[in-house]
Amino acid sequence: MLDFLAPALAQPGLGWVTCITVIAGIVYGFAGFGAALIFMPVATIFWVPELAVASFSVSALASLVTLVPRAWPQMDRSSVLTMIAFSVLGAPIGIYLLRTSDVTHIRWAVLVVAAITLAALMSGWRQKLSSLRSTQAGIGVATGFIGGATGLLGPVMLLFQLSGSEPVARVRANSLVFLTISSLLLLPSMALQGILTTEAIILGVILLIPYGIGAKLGQAIFIPRFEVFYRNIAYAIIAAAILMGLPLWD
To answer: How distant, in Å, are the alpha carbons of 42, 53, 189 from that of 116?
Structure first.
């Protein structure tokens, strides 16, 4: 009766992917970013990128319950909702590239985007950007495109958020709400392009619980005055995930 579960449960590396999902959730809970930067490089060692991106997007349902309710009142609602709306426009093009490109090329793209983002964050790079609606719209489209192609929704939006002067709590809330809702909004485009398979949905549901537990734990241990410490921990874990995901080890 449960034969439809067999292909998902037989996926190679499911135990490893589940472990990295917990770690990604913890980091996301205390840092407000980094989940996909940790999950994608490791998950694509074992799974084809389409499956990794689709299943991780399904698991974002966990954050909708565990993290978004507390972050929602703290976010800049107008800015975040504008970027979410425009991310939907860029996502289908990115998903098309994900679906039609060589697996190894996508894996390298994931690692390059993750490495550039990590380098920018660690160096303290800041580029002052306008807060005009047109800028927010452009950030949204770019985020949707890169997120659709690689599963990494965070980099463009995160660097945009850090270029401003908003308090840490608001930046964290903006990131949590944007990344969670944008991940979920990838699902209709994935379904239309045929990569939101039954297998991806099952794996996403399986990962939803460890991801949710990790996110809740990360949120519980976050202490705002130690924000720099938490951020450095996130950087170290992201760097380790990137190194692990290098196709060179194959």
So the answer is: 17, 19, 27
The model's pTM is 0.87
Phi then psi for 28, rounded to 5 degrees?
Answer: -60, -40
Token digits for 215?
Answer: 């996110």
- What are 195-199's contacts with CB under 8 Å, separation 24+? 195/50, 195/51, 195/53, 195/54, 195/95, 195/98, 195/99, 196/54, 196/58, 197/51, 197/54, 198/4, 198/8, 199/7, 199/8, 199/11, 199/51
Q: Report CA 160 to chain centroid distance, whole Å.
A: 16
Q: What whole-number distance in Å separates Cα of residue 140 and Cα of residue 82? A: 7
CA distance linking residue 181 with residue 222, whole number of Å: 22
Q: How far apart are CA 54 and CA 245, in angstroms?
A: 18
Would you give the DSSP letter of residue 73? G
Cα–Cα dist 77/133, whole Å: 13
Return d(Cα 46, Cα 52) in angstroms, integer: 9
The per-residue pLDDT for range 230-247, each reduced to its tens digit, is 889 999 999 999 999 998
- The rounded Cα 201 to chain-centroid distance in angstroms is 17
102-144: pLDDT as tens digits: 999 999 999 999 998 888 888 876 655 556 677 888 888 999 9
Instruction: State both tokens at 186.
Output: 């990838």
Would you say 25 and 210 are in contact if contact means Cβ atoms under 8 Å apart? yes
DSSP conformation class of 47: S
